[in-house]
Design a protein that fits this description.
Oligomer: single chain
Strand content: 5-15%
Structural class: mainly alpha
Radius of gyration: 19 Å
Number of strands: 2
Helix content: 55-70%
Shape: elongated
Largest sheet: 2 strands, antiparallel
Length: 120
């Protein structure tokens, strides 16, 4: 989990993405404890409240849950839920835009598929 934070986006968003990435890469497994806000704060030299904000995003999404007195854990099905959400975001942010631009240029879906296949 030792990745570097950047200035490109809010730190708390980066914390939530780093944890999601670790879940997707099977570094953090379902029902496994995740680092605490204090551990994250120490690791990334950030305010614990910022780390907590990142963790809370994942709690709201149902990716993490709290075991009272023990810590935060990865929910069962978290990896599949993250993949589903990210696929939807990918489609909305990239594929729809690509299709709209192709349409405005008069490129048919068949031509576009051919272009994509040739791009490999």
């Amino acid at each position: 989990m030792q990745e570097f934070l950047t200035q490109e986006k809010s730190i708390y968003l980066q914390i939530s993405e780093l944890l999601e990435n670790d879940i997707l890469r099977d570094i953090l497994l379902e029902e496994e404890r995740v680092p605490s806000t204090n551990e994250l704060a120490k690791l990334y030299v950030i305010n614990p409240a910022t780390a907590a904000k990142g963790i809370n995003i994942l709690v709201e999404r149902g990716v993490l849950y709290k075991k009272r007195g023990i810590g935060m854990f990865v929910t069962t099905g978290a990896k599949a839920a993250i993949q589903k959400r990210r696929k939807e975001e990918f489609f909305d942010n990239y594929v729809k835009t690509l299709l709209e631009e192709a349409e405005s240029l008069g490129i048919s879906k068949e031509e576009l598929i051919g272009m994509l296949q040739n791009a490999k």
